[in-house]
Design a protein that fits this description.
Elements (H helix, E strand, L loop, with lengths): L2 H11 L9 H38 L3 E5 L8 H9 L3 E16 L2 E10 L4 H4 L22 E5 H7 L6 E12 L2 E15 L4 H4 L2 E5 H8 L8 E6 L5 H9 L7 E5 H4 L1 H39 L1 H9 L4 H37 L20 H27 L3 H5 L3
Helix pairs in contact: 1-12, 2-10, 2-12, 2-13, 10-12, 10-13, 12-13
Length: 409
Amino acid sequence: MSFELFVARRYLFARRGQAFISVISWISVAGVALGVASLIVVMGVMNGFTTDLRDKIIGMSAHAVVYSSAPVFEEDENLEAALRSAPGITALTPFIHSGVLLSGRSGGSGVYLRGVDPKSAAAVLGGLKNMTRGKVGDLDDTEGLPGIIIGEVLADKLAVDVGGRINVMAPSGRQSAAGFSPRIMPFRVVGLFRIGLADYDSALAFVNLSNAREVLGRPDRSISGIETAVDDVYAAGEIMRRALSLTDRTDLYVRTWQEMNANLFAALKLEKAAMAVILTLVVLVGSFSIVTALVMLVMEKKRDIAILMSMGARAGMVRRIFTLQGLLIGCMGTTAGMLLGLGCCMLLKRYKFIELPRGVYSLDYLPVLLQWQDVLLTGLCAMLLCFFATLYPARQAAGIEPVEALRHE
């Protein structure tokens, strides 16, 4: 800042003992601060929900799944060995899936049955490592009935517990003289899990791979696909494309977790963008208060501006004075808002004092995940809005004609 600009600024805003920032200016600071803080908190909560949902989806589904376009996809040790040796792939497991009907003491329910290999499934499906009752290895128990793992919500619905019996009825059956008869096979509940998502806790069941083939009427060694885990979930597609290039199979194709849940994450992304736009309007209202404050200052200091310009002050100098005044208000509001927003996020993350209704959401508390790029982008956008808010008052101040302003003085 030049010496002339410093003197002019002091002359305009410190003369006659007037306050440097008026009441309206403080209201502008508060408006910008509240808008910035609200935006940071909402972005943190939306990031927390999205990340939690992503982790739970990945916990019960693979990062990428290899399918075959051939009529029958059979287990291939050479294929699995080639995939295991590919860079980026950390684990894999074959699986079978189909829709079935489960029946217990209190009725029945349609579920998504998945046949897995208990020895390798937990390395790919992280949710099976943290079951509330039992463990995935119990599916290999050969004593008595074959084992099945279901969600806690489904267990309550069927009125069964660990050790209880349920029947699995598959759509594939036999045609006889008496008509079509579905396959029905009894299972013993050996484990329960709780993910927090209704689609999993109430409509998903796991059985041994060989038992799944038996109840679904599939031939030996047949599978639906190969689930894989990779070291970078956001590069799953590229990793799997490189892995398939190492095999001699042309009938294989891949679907990643992003492709299988594209609609859900697109909706979350749109919701986050909509909330950002709505809360940006709050910052915009605060920036309009800056316009009001500066316009009133121009009207109040019209005579002083005219005197300065008659003494040789240039229009650009006056314009910079009011621009700096508005930017100072915006900087104070943005800084206060960022500190307030970060403080609220830290408190929400540490103490979790906002509880959510159980059974309605996938979490029992409000999740918060701060991403510094969101915080910095919020601060930058707020400062830009405050800068644009100074343009009109600064231009009005610079356009004052000294002769007209002092004519009636």
